[in-house]
Design goal:
The complex is a heterodimer of chains A (112) and B (118). Chain A contains no helices and ten strands. Chain A is mainly β. Classes of the chains: A mainly beta (112), B mainly beta (118).
């Protein structure tokens, strides 16, 4: 059959709202997780990370939550701003490996 | 710090031509990664160097692709001959040595090279 491009999941929010971006991972042995932000025309940029011995970590306006039971990771952005518009990737690492596995990404669109 | 530097930023070439992408990692970083990003396949790791030595090249698509890291401050990714399906954005990323407690695996990405093969 004809192949089609894969469309990223998209989250649209109003400026000032809180945003929650979700990520499901598959490897129960993963012990380190990272969120990256990729703006149009740029490379991915590190936002925040979390180890598997934690379930929550906070940064500036961002919070990452980890639920190992259901293998779920979320990134919460408080008071979302137009500058937060980007594609957000989660990545996982396993057992001390230096090589991350990246998710497909979620496109966040912030409307002024 | 200037961050990871990649050149060229854009490359348009004809099928069959040789393409060389260049990367200068952040000074002091000892790991370097080459990625390819497309809408169809997302972000794919092509090859990973540690201390200038290729550690994992299982992501290199085929023999047309080769990568070198002759010293700690320079790496190249070469495609010969190039094909239209190689069109993508190619990213180079570098990472610092792990601390004594191995606290961070953060990768610093360059701005990418957008390759178009016609």
């Amino acid at each position: 059959g004809e192949s089609v491009g894969l469309h990223l999941p998209t989250l649209s929010v109003q400026e000032g709202d809180n945003s929650i971006i979700n990520c499901a991972y598959s490897n129960s042995a993963s012990d380190y997780f990272i969120w990256y932000k990729q703006e149009s025309g740029k490379g991915p940029q590190f936002i925040i990370d979390i180890r598997s011995n934690m379930d929550k970590r906070q940064g500036q306006r961002v919070t990452v939550l980890l639920n190992k039971t259901v293998k779920h990771l979320s990134l919460q952005i408080a008071a979302t701003q137009p500058g937060d518009s980007a594609v957000y990737f989660c990545a996982e690492r396993t057992g001390g490996s230096y090589i991350p596995t990246f998710g497909r990404g979620t496109s966040l669109i912030v409307h002024p | 710090d200037a961050g990871v530097i990649q050149s060229p930023r854009h490359e348009v070439t004809e099928m069959g031509q040789e393409v060389t992408l260049r990367c200068k990692p952040i000074s002091g970083h000892n790991s370097l990664f080459w990625y390819r990003q497309t809408m169809m396949r997302g972000l794919e790791l092509l090859i990973y160097f540690n201390n200038n030595v290729p550690i994992d090249d299982s992501g290199m698509p085929e023999d047309r692709f080769s990568a070198k890291m002759p010293n700690a401050s320079f790496s190249t990714l070469k495609i010969q001959p190039s094909e239209p399906r190689d069109s993508a954005v190619y990213f180079c990323a570098s990472s610092p040595p792990l601390g004594r407690r191995g606290t961070s695996y953060e990768q610093y990405f360059g701005p990418g090279t957008r390759l178009t093969v016609t």
